[in-house]
Specification:
This protein is mainly alpha-helical and about 180 residues long. It contains 11 helices and no strands. It has one domain: Hypothetical protein, domain 2 (Endonuclease III, domain 1, Orthogonal Bundle). About 60% of the residues lie in helices and about 0% in strands. Helix 3 packs across helix 4 and helix 3 packs antiparallel against helix 7. The protein is globular and about 50 Å long.
Length: about 180
Amino acid sequence: MHYCDYAPHDPLHAPYHDREHGFPARDEAVLFERLLLEINQAGLSWATVLRKRDTLRAAYAGFEVDRVAAFTDADRQRLMADPGVIRNARKVDAAIANARAVQGLRAGSGGFAAFLDAQHPRPKADWVKLLKRHFIHVGGEIAGEFLMSLGYLPGAHRPDCPVHARVLAADPPWRHARAGTFD
């Protein structure tokens, strides 16, 4: 079942489906949030992540990269004790390490959005390899959903979904890929 089949009628999923999923984003905190949400979703339902989204935002300092990158062991322990977040040591450690990786992208690539733009277009398998070189706890499913949620890969919405036309109007990066890129 495609996300467009059930999300528009679900009070939890509809706002994300209708206003965020597949739309391009440039803001570093938004990009980082999407990465962390996808990492936290691994092994869980997307509904679980959406229910905890506000708590995750508060626990991870509004997804501000510099603040998360500065987290200490005490912050890690706080997160591991917080029942409002997903208390998985690998996911908590990935959030902190990946915030530091995003900081590194600023110096080397001009920022997270510039890094993604400079890599586009490429096949999903190449994206996965690239993201694994820069981030931790990012496998094929996480990388694919992260990139699709931001419009770097197609498929966020079915062509007959009303949101699809709005995504196209927002000019997602995948529209500018050469033929055969997503094979």
